[in-house]
Amino acid sequence: MLLDGGVHALRVAAAAPAGTSAVLLELGVVLLVLAVLGRIAAKLGIPSIPLYLLAGLLMGDGGFIPVSAGEDFLAVGAQIGVVLLLLLLGLEYSPQDLQHGLRTTWQAGLVDGLANGAPGFVLGLLLGWSMTASLLLAGVTYISSSGIIARLLDDFDRYANRETPVILSLLVMEDIVMAVFLPIMAVLLVGASLVQGAVAAGIAIAIVAGAFFISLKFSAHVSKVVHSHSRELLLLSVLGLAFVVAGLAEAAQVSAAVGAFLLGLTLSGQVADDVRTLMPPLRDVFGGIFFVFFGLTIDPRDLVPVLLPALALAVVTAATKVATGMWAARRVGIGPKGQWRTGVSLIPRGEFSIVIAGLGITAGIQPQLGPLAAAYVLILAVAGSLMMRFAARIGPPSRWVPAALSRS
Amino acid sequence: MDIYETPLPGVGVRYEFTAESGDRVGIVVRRDGKRDLGLYDREDPDACTGTLELSEGDASALAELLGGTNITARLESLRHQVEGLAIEWITMPTSGGLANRTIGDGHIRTATSASIVAVIRDEVGVPGPGPDFELRPGDTVLVMGSEHAVGHARQILIG
């Protein structure tokens, strides 16, 4: 009997599709590449996101290492990565954070959106792109990377600095704006007319408002239902809920990412605390797959023609971010050096720029959007992080500082 | 002494105050319980010259070494455990409410279900004051209960 059981197990293994070993091998290699790159990034003191992107570019079509067998899994893994990225982003914020953020920073948020979205939008139009594709590019240039910036603020011990609340509030505002922006874009991408677009925008805003309302009034109830003291059951509940909500949102053409973000906002209290400690490793693994997959979908040869526009866009939007940040910090009475730190800290772009560009790629609207966004994020994730690190040494440019304050 | 509280969205809360020496001190209480203690730069008052990262345990050990009581730390952990428990410090007015009257006069326990856990008078804490304890203007009364009950109790106390 024992022998029979053993043989049976072997048969099951043998019955697996012929390509299984190739899939496992490829996935293993991809994950190991991520692991090595992550270590290199940590050594160099730069975020790992640009390296993951680069790895994706170098693999796959037109790259050095072909990845084909595992592509289906990577595609699903990337989708899971987006859902987890946004779920945890939503979990980061309590309803109070959002209320406070909206009340105190909406003006700075508005300036931030206009000053940093406009360059992307204009460049899109200059390149002869459609309205929708240009709007997506505006989103790419607008949104700073909460992931990279929060991580670096921690690494550089800047949480206690007086300008830090300004930076964090701006990041919150951007995330709120994105919760409205993404669903509107999702509708525009399926080729809606202006009227349909307006209706869709209304619905999107209503859904977001609804989620905010639930998160403000009923999050304790929702969270109580989901919570469990077993880590396994808690993970299963939250992951299951996240995928169901994301799937439903996707089916309703609101984008899975937005669904996950809104679910994250709705959960709070003990559930949020527990999930925040449990889920980050999972998010980082699948998030890594997301960046690799995004790189995989782009042929590195397509990067060459967009390199100059990406560089120009990077320079312009780095400057507009610095200006926005300095303005926002000055309004709350931060000194010149702190203003400079605020501005520089907002430069890094990362995960959300890629999420937004990914929407365009899936919809297939503008073949250049993906390569341009990839090059842009590569430049600003690395350059922005380095500028944050050396902010004190490179600035602020002395002529911006009144003579009386610049003694040192 | 004024302690300023600033929310740090996604991170926690930052408290800051100016010491009598003129140095400014900032403490970030992160959501996971870790504390960052920062000493601000005199030249650039927005930035820290140094930061000390403390675990929750480190922080209460340091507080005790510095001569603080650990009553707030205890209360905080209590608040984590009991969902819906509100704790409020209420300063007694010069007149009106229960000023110069006994706790029993207010019938707080029966009317609101909130409890007076302690009274602090001139930096001295009186834990578990009885119904015949007389409240004086300036006393700090520590009330615990559901949010609603505590709100009701505050009305009775300060009139």
From TrEMBL, chain A:
UniProt keyword annotation of Membrane present:
yes
Q: A GO molecular function for this record?
A: antiporter activity
Main location (coarse class): membrane
Q: Which GO terms describe its biological process?
A: proton transmembrane transport
Q: Kindly list the GO CC terms recorded for this protein.
A: membrane
Residue span(s) of domain Cation/H+ exchanger transmembrane:
33-384
User: Subcellular location, in the record's words?
Assistant: Membrane
Where does the sequence pass through the membrane?
12-37, 49-67, 73-93, 105-127, 133-153, 165-192, 198-220, 232-249, 306-329, 350-367, 373-392
Q: What span is annotated as the signal peptide, if there is one?
A: none
Tell me where on the tree of life, at the top rank, the source sits.
Bacteria
Q: Which UniProt keywords apply?
A: Membrane, Transmembrane, Transmembrane helix, Transport
The record, for InterPro entries, names:
Cation/H_exchanger_TM, Na+/solute_symporter_sf
Membrane topology term reads: Multi-pass membrane protein
Family (UniProt): Belongs to the monovalent cation:proton antiporter 2 (CPA2) transporter (TC 2.A.37) family.
- UniProt-recorded name of the protein: Cation:proton antiporter
Q: Which organism is it from?
A: Demequina capsici
TrEMBL record, chain B:
Annotated GO molecular function terms are: monoatomic cation transmembrane transporter activity
Top-level division of the source organism's lineage: Bacteria
Domain spans labelled RCK C-terminal:
75-159
Q: Which GO terms describe its biological process?
A: potassium ion transport
Q: Which InterPro entries match?
A: AAE_transporter, KhtT, KhtT-like_N, RCK_C, RCK_C_sf
Protein name in the entry: Cation:proton antiporter regulatory subunit
Species, as recorded:
Demequina capsici
